Model the fold of this input.
Amino acid sequence: MLIAIAIMALGAVILGAMLGWASIRFKVEGDPLVEKIDSVLPQTQCGQCGYPGCRPYAEAIAKGEEINLCPPGGAEGVQKLADLLGREVKALDAEEKPKQVALIDENTCIGCTLCIQACPVDAIVGAAKQLHTVVAKLCTGCELCVPPCPVECIRMEAIPETIDNWKWKHPVIAIQPVPARKVA
Amino acid sequence: MFQLFKFNGGVKPPGNKAQSVGQPSATAPLPARLVVPLHQNIGGTPRPVVKAGDRVLKGQLIGEADGWISAAVHAPTSGMVRDIGAYVQPHPSGLSAVSVVIEPDGREEWIERQPVDYRNLPTDAVQTAIRQAGIVGLGGAAFPTHGKTTPAKGVPMEELIINGGECEPYITCDDILMREQGEGIVRGTAIIRDLMQPKKVLIGIEDNKPEAIAAMRAAVAACGENFDVVAVPALYPAGSAKQLTRMLTGKEVPVGKRSTDIGTQCFNVGTVYAVWRALALGEPLIDRMITVTGNVEHPRNWRAPIGMPIADLLALGGPKADTDGVILGGPMMGFVAPDLTVSTVKATNCLIARSRTLFPPAPPEMPCIRCGECARACPQDLQPFEMYWFSRARNFGKTQEYHIFDCIECGCCSFVCPSRIPLVQYFRFAKSEIWAREGDKKAANSAKERFEYKKAREEREKAEKAEKLAKAAAAQAAKKAAEAAATGDSLPVTTPTADDAEAAKKAAIAAAMERAKAQRAAVQPRNTDALNADQQHAIDAVEARRLQAGLETPAADNENPSS
Amino acid sequence: MTLSSPYVLKETSVTWVMTQVCLALLPGIAVYTWVIGPAILIQLALASLAALAGEAAMLKIRGKPLNLFLTDGSALLTGWLIALTFPPLSPWWLIVVGTLFAIVVAKQLYGGLGQNPFNPAMIAFAASIVSFPALMSQWPSQDMHLGLVEHLRIVFGLSPHLDSLTAATPLDALKTGLKLGEEAGASVAGLLANAQTFGHVGGRGWEWITLAYLIGGLWLCLRRIITWHVPASFLAAVVVLSGALWLYDPREFANPLFHLFSGGVMLGAFFIATDPVTCASTPRGKLIFGAGCGLLAYVIRVFGGYPDGVAFAVLFLNICAPLISLLTQPPVFGAKGRN
Done:
């Protein structure tokens, strides 16, 4: 009896020591989970999740925040996060929108630079009292530039489908019963 | 006897080629209107250089090549430019893109045609001439031809392959071109040969085209060249560049590498013929041979202007009553034209009138039984059924593990599948999804980078501002202290609270000015900092002249950001 | 929705493939009927009916189109294979239960055609031999010559005197004979001399049936319905292993020819292990798969407790098939020059 307890205790001590050694030896700097979550998020930096940017949201998810708060990521983003974290897939907590790009009405723009300051990804160029314009390629469609504009000259436009971004569709063919053959 | 190699897989669909080679080719009459799409090549979209209302001559440049991998577009005939706008494209999506609409005047007035003295020009000049002539691969890929004529660095060019395979059913445009224009093809081949300096030139033709083989042998002999005209077994897709290269040389071009990396290069017969016409006759690529066949009364090959609406071309063949659409390209790799208003482009090699009897609708898709027929038919040695499972499940990472990007979409797998699964469409779907995702990922990464840069910049600006503020406040306080020290004895009864409040106010104003200054400095970068003696001297001279002219006083410009 | 190219398809279908396999079984069935009697036809009819009924019911429950999947021929083929592997004089309910188990549990519950990880026919055989070992070991004795009516009476339980008509299979007879005669110094040669049970190379009569299976299987290979890999490596493995042991001790072990033409080796090699759904998918994988089946079948039939080992060998290799396929991916075109 005593010997058994001693053996178990010894085993526990040895294994515990190994675990402790491994945790020091194989310590990973930073939080790889946050990095992984961040790489799944769409990096629009739009703040629609309620966090100031994608990384803060990634950190929040790592601490247990819901995974369905990112509208630009869409249902697919939720699915990816669920796969990554082994959580339940949930319906997106917002409407899914098609991808958009901001467009400045050049006739109305007064050159106030407010949108430039609001743009999280430096996709708007222009200077004080100069016309501003959106570099469409860099725009993530986050809509953060829309509210600050004092003259409401920014609107969001869905990205149109062109031959360059057109995609082949998933070939789901409904299996229909073959029309009954005529009996000869 | 020439030693041929084999590739794995391949299928033998019914050829249906005899119908359209019964008659020699003919030139298609000009239609009422030509719609010439600008983007007919892989690479940059050419920029339009004409506008609505311009008169253009036959062969006149209407779209200028944009970037090196791009090809110019020319007016196929003389006439008026009626519109430059979005028109439905001959593309499976049925979407529109910029096209130039020309109304022919029927006079066929050429621009001044200037042959290029290609024998005495440096390589890059010849390549530029080919690019200016708008020549792209006419076998269907439409890759700008000049971009393929540079051998890889450090790899000697072994074989130049001229592709007369034409393995797709129904298509005979290359066959008829080889029968009728053998000399032009051989001379065009010689031009490319001079550019690339290969050790051997091989002209590969499927053995179901004996007339073309004979014609090409005669043409090679007539031109006194030492090209090998090789008959290859008719096995679809022997006309694919990779498979033809394998058959003729035994070499396999790996995905992601160019064929020049293994010392070979492959051109379609139509392409080299167009090169010869462009350089020897000065005629840019404005028409091409197109097979009109399928459910028509008179299947035939037509030399048709690029930009001809397919409805007009189809009418030449006399479509039968039950025609319900047009396949552009062959039945194995082509696509159904979105509608009959779309026009032919440089890559259009065949129009097949479709009917339910010729091309019955696809039977219902059954589950995959993993019979492996597709893997045995695949000329790229892939496992289509594995890629199918993962494409269907949208597990795109796995499809890439099974090398989905090696797939050439030849259609062999779908052809043999007993479960009638549209495998190729699954692969096209998966590929375009993967491309889109990779694009998204790239965009996300760059957005993240810019976001982080912006954050860092804002932090830095804030820190700099705070530092300046602190400095100014310190200076103010020091001044105050000095003043206080100087006047301290005389005014000891001044209420210290009022004094402090005033100092703070002054400091705040100074800080605001400092901020404004900083902002100005930030907005207007100055090039007057860090001048050397000469520059300073020159500036001083200018200032002196200004002063003399009474324009302004240099003292007014007392902003000095370095303070 | 318009599909993309190719717009021409080869004349082929799942139904056609399954029909070809069924056709290839016909010589075997004909010889079976001639040697053993019309009981096998009764069993085939019962199995076909049960298979189609089970398939139809399951398709209905799963909401799949009946006419499309019932006509694909896969259920019919499963039923035929079950009939050919079960004792022909077993009671009617045995084959019905076995077939229903194969179709309902081993095939449809896994998702139907193309989705089953195990060969349904072999699942039926394994489940039945585990559940009803006595019934599954009663094979008709060779000297029984009864008509269709007699066979019908036996199958439907109207003639109770079954025991007197049945015997063990040649494989079982050999194994039992060797075990019982251990002290008496029984040898394979001596046992095989018993003309009542054994014929020229294999079991008496059974060798002809097996030969017919071989002919049907070769025809399938020639028509490229199946590839040569699985049958070749299956048979080669049996020959190599049995040959090695036979050379080592011909008194204890039967010769390779006997093993090739006894039991389910031919049927298994050409018709059961080649089932594409449950087989390895690559050429090298198929070689490994077939060899594994052959080795295991021999080991189980010679050293194990069951009269034959083909069913268990195939089922075991079915489990390994995905892994085998994964590890034997052939190089793709141009792989040599890839970085």
